[in-house]
């Protein structure tokens, strides 16, 4: 079967400590339970992958699966355990960008790290899991507990990246490997049964509004502090832009008309030769997915478009993108539970079904906002190397909101701020339109 | 003598129509007078330059002086006259980036346009001036008049660019040419006589505040519409960061400490090998200016630093940059008249003198803000190709405020938004600090 | 244990057909025996490597081990079997550069081919081996037999490349993996026991001389036809340049003196920042080898230097490189048997021992000649895609002679022409000096 | 009128010392006369150019006209006068690549040297001319005389480069400036009156032959020493490949068939997007010349093709390029006088007329040979910095023979070796075919 599972079984390391994902549990989970679950969930994503699949890197922005496995482990080793479990050199190899704790290995060369082997990385994971779980048996001082929590959230982010990075890698191969078949009940249909939801613009919430996170639950530093903002009158689309709509934009010469584009966007279109979303066939009829090559569903949200493309599409449509404040003020946290998340086993966005209110704010596709990623007023990064987590990226990137079909459901909040460069396309990124109200 | 003036005299074209700059005039100037004055002012900047000096291009972001002369003329030809005065090909050569009126000549190859010659470009200017001034003798329909006004403002922007681009060109030559000697009265002293103003942080204006331009005077579309914004409590530095302060940052290892930098900034530091402001000598004691190489005045504002450097310096200093809303709410338009502008003939920032309130918000150096350049709520670009003026650049750049010693005084407002990429350094860019209030 | 050997055993494919390398045999080997031996020898080189080790690519010029395994197999499938054994897509993946039989997969992206897996590639090898060996049981038509012979020689070339490419990959890792420990008897000593051979120049053979291959044994098309050439009077060094001598060149400022370098070489020194041979430590005392990091033996031949470095060293030494005609006229085929080859298990050059005549022309290090790689008079490439083997590379490269410690002994002839770009360093390349006679 | 001539007149410098080109003279010219003539000839080429035309640089391989004027002068200052006439910095600016006499200014930035101005450079020329001519009034020691001779030859080389560099510059402008109109008698006809010479292959000279220069006249070091070589039996084409023939190659898919190309050549075709000779229109019917855009003469030699294209064309034609030894053994020095040279005023190759023997070996187009540029046996570069003239370029380039319509007639010999990189196209380069005999 080729996966690493067999290796782990032979090595017999640690895994018994971690209950399988999805196991019933009564009441809110303890930190230890949540730790074990998320660590296990990461491994579950690797089923069916060979050591080679998990070791290659297809572009500087992506990382090998094995590196994700090791890096998330290093995070706990570095910031929770505080003692070196792995060899010294490993710390350098699996540090992503924390310059304060040693010079990281070059990001664009992670695919060259054939050593340590997958088996060694799995053993490293198991050893760190043992130690962290032992720690969690005791009472933890608050800072260390908060680092465990941060590590769990971090683990979930890398679960999503693991999937998007793997998709990009597999897309490079003429063999177009299938990562996993969709569950029979949830397969993305070649053409959605629904006739599609008519695009409508509904009134959004405006005026002086408090934005950002406050309260007991976990949130990243970049979602804080909660603060007042002035939100202009606007209307919000009832669903994301669909493949059919985006195809119309293409057929209308969208990629050949400079007046529709930001100056930097037009330069990128010409430089990179873009004429369709990433992973679409040149005939605009099929797309490569984690379930292999499939027909494009006209009613499903368009996906894998850059900020430049989202902005150009909106201009073509006579609309605009929303600011992240508009988005947040319009989002209903109660909708998270009904979103399409990774747990569904369908790793591709699907069409909205019920035509009630504003749909699909959560799950399916991350939604580009028109907001450059920057600090909230009185933003304070955490003290120490953990403070490098978010703040130092507040330049040149744009905020996306709402999570995707590759996000773990428990990871996303209405205040959650994701961020990528305007030319990035390999995440599950889509378009939510707005207009002035 | 080598300048192009002689050529113009021989050709005897048009110049008599334009009164010399600085001529006394009573009462507010007519549009025609302002047109003539600004067109003349551009030419005055070229005194002492050879045709060769005016034809070379030192990097893709800069343009040859001759190109500035032609491009500003093309702007009036295209948007005011509406008829072709020059040869058809010229329109393509001197269109900067207006994709809707023809495919512009490659921006990074403007230095290869040895034809038309300087003499031909000067004749082209004279011919267009004749036609525009003739037009201004009559009553203009409002849209055309507004395009003349836009063209004058555009002319002024290129006057500043002409100076900064020329400075960059001259800095490439081992001969380090002097563009112009400073007036004897206003020379930047090798070391300022003042002892320097102690850095202090004064209370800024906060709360819900209206931002942007409204009213009868000219403003660019990107300063509009006026709208309410929420400004957080903050304090503002009484003056820009000085050379002495910046030197301390350098000596404290500022360029070698990744924890001080944005991630993109640190990448740029390593890629470009930055270890000091553009134009500083490696000994940190002299700098190249439009007046030749001079000693660095410790008390003058530091200049020619990127956004990345401004941000890193602020972090090192335990402060931050201001948002553009904070800057605008703190700026007093009454201070414009006392600023240090291009008209002084001193093309380099000088030290503040009087220690009263917040100094040097206007003139001396453009001040980087922490605000990514984006549209104000309900922003509408102008209809037609003129709409490409500002809007399509609202991505990836940062706002600077307040004008510089190379700006024409009459060009700047408290709502004025300049914008450059975070790695740009060749404008007169400096640092104004702020702190949370 | 992590190697792929276990996998093969489990899969149980084909291997029994191939006798282990080194098995005693009486009389000259049949084509089938030679085929089986060399195919087996390639696999033997992979002992101890993990699937990940065999899948990564460290630069465009190198290929993953797995790709070498598959490509050499494709060669037999394409040119000997003539029927498709593998899936259609595989042919494209494992075609290196034969444009006439389909568009090859991008050379610099071979590390992204995680599929087919190592196990699949090994099965592919076994299947093709079965078919080729079955074919060899029968009488083959001469052209097909000659393609089997060509495939065996090709297999041997890739055995050497497999080693040099792997060395380059392992050198990128901070972990500096050991590929294999040297046999206890043959270990490269930290410092050679010998005192080193004094460098002397011995008279070479000159005048009109026949160059190139003629006769019944195998030779590549680029060694043919045999033809008269005029060889000038010259003297040849008794041994390759040693590490000690090269270190003296470095300490004498060799890498800082442009007058010693070809113009292109000096440009490369500055561009790439070269200041020592590839794999040497900056302290010039240790080097990375396939046996891990070892002390540099002063008396062993210097290795992993480019043509530019070889040429600069020669100029510094008051000598020059030999032409390939001079080299060939001076080489004694009888010395091949006493050379240091891959079969020794010592994958690194070692010091010459006996001071008699001209030593080490064969084995240890490939010797750069001053001859640009070009066609011999009346050179005819083979008909069909096999004709792309050599001829289309006759531009921009230089000839090297004599084989290395990574070459199979049976592969090298005195007429053998290897060729690489003047900036290449990752092969076992060294320096043989000459002077005018 | 815009040319610099007026400036010279005003400045009144030196020019009277130099007799106008073409002036009658009886008997062989003295060194002083030849010096004066060639220095004057360089200036004559600049008639009609503006200071701007003479200051721009269109690619790293080319230089501005003004730089050529200054560099050739610096050569005499440095190697003949031996005292500094210009400012110290100028020596650095106008040193091309002589690393032993100071670090040259970056070659790809020569277009930024707006200072010294053209007028200053002309004065510098005049001053150096005065001094050199004064020197030549006296008896010179032999080494200095030989440096004057070398400087004159060097001046002639730069006369040709000045033309080819200017052509490249003018070709970048949409205005397509005409450098000079052809003399009425010698204009390249839109279509040649001749019906074209049928291509025939004539027997060449083979066997052991002496190659290279020997004797009293001037020759560069790279043409020496004369030495025996073995030339294979071959036949040589009676004229260069014509535009009509090359067009047939294009229409036959020449640029789309990888099997016709060297591996490096095919990579360059794809990288640079080549599909026709430099300066040809995409319709293959007109070409840009120093006389402006003209119809392509089907019978004239094809021009501005790279080595890669010459080699691919030859392969397509079932022929090959000649080695430089074959070329030299077939060339008749007596044909030089009847060649088409720069002095004709027709700066573009024209069709052969008389169908007798081998035509156009000299003049019209440089002919690519299949010989990589390398040292002749016992080659010795001159001592000192002058030794950098040729030897350090003996890597990566190919030899061209015979001179072009842009070469001064008196500059070319049958032993003359020109050399360029295989991707270079901006010289007047063409194709002479050969076949095995």
From TrEMBL, chains A, B, C, D:
Residues 35-160 form the DinB-like domain. InterPro entries: CTDL_fold, DinB-like, DinB/YfiT-like, EgtB, Sulfatase_Mod_Factor_Kinase, SUMF_dom, SUMF_sf. Pathway: Amino-acid biosynthesis; ergothioneine biosynthesis. Pfam families: DinB_2, FGE-sulfatase. SUPFAM superfamilies: C-type lectin-like, DinB/YfiT-like putative metalloenzymes. Residues 207-335, 355-433 form the Sulfatase-modifying factor enzyme-like domain. The keyword Oxidoreductase applies. Keywords: Iron, Oxidoreductase. PANTHER family: HERCYNINE OXYGENASE, SULFATASE MODIFYING FACTOR 1, 2. This is Ergothioneine biosynthesis protein EgtB. It comes from Tahibacter amnicola.
């Amino acid at each position: 079967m080729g996966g690493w599972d067999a290796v782990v079984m032979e090595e017999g390391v640690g895994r018994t400590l971690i209950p399988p994902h999805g196991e019933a549990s009564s009441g809110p989970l303890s930190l230890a339970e949540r730790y074990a679950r998320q660590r296990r969930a990461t491994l579950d994503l690797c089923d069916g992958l060979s050591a080679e699949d998990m070791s290659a890197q297809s572009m500087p922005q992506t990382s090998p699966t094995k590196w994700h496995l090791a890096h998330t482990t290093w995070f706990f080793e570095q910031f929770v355990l505080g003692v070196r479990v792995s060899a010294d050199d490993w710390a350098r190899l699996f540090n992503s960008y924390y310059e304060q704790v040693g010079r990281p290995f070059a990001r664009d060369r992670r695919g060259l790290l054939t050593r340590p082997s997958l088996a060694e990385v799995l053993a490293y994971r198991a050893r760190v899991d043992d130690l962290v779980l032992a720690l969690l048996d005791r009472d933890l001082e608050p800072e260390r507990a908060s680092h465990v929590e941060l590590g769990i959230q971090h683990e979930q982010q890398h679960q999503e990246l693991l999937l998007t990075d793997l998709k990009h890698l597999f897309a490079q191969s003429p063999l177009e490997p299938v990562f996993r078949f969709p569950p029979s009940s949830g397969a993305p249909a070649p053409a959605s049964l629904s006739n599609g939801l008519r695009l409508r613009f509904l009134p959004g919430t405006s005026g002086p509004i408090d934005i950002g996170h406050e309260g007991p639950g976990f949130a990243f530093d970049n979602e804080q502090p909660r603060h007042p903002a002035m939100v202009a009158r606007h209307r919000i689309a009832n669903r994301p832009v669909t493949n059919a709509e985006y195809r119309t934009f293409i057929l209308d010469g969208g990629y050949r008309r400079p007046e529709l584009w930001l100056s930097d966007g037009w330069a990128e279109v010409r430089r990179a030769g873009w004429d369709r979303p990433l992973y679409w066939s040149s005939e605009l009829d099929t797309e490569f997915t984690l379930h292999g090559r499939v027909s494009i569903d006209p009613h499903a949200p368009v996906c894998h478009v850059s900020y430049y493309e989202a902005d150009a599409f909106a201009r073509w449509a006579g609309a605009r993108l929303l600011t992240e404040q508009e988005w947040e003020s319009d989002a209903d946290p109660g909708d998270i539970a009904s979103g399409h998340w990774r747990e569904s086993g369908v790793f591709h966005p699907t069409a909205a079904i019920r035509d009630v209110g504003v749909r699909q704010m959560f799950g399916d596709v991350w939604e580009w906002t028109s907001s450059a990623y920057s600090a909230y007023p009185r933003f304070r990064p955490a003290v120490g190397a953990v403070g490098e987590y978010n703040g130092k990226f507040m330049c040149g990137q744009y905020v996306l909101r709402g999570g995707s079909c590759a996000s773990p459901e428990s990871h996303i909040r209405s205040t959650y701020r994701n961020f990528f460069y305007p030319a990035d396309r390999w995440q599950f990124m889509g378009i939510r339109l707005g207009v002035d109200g």
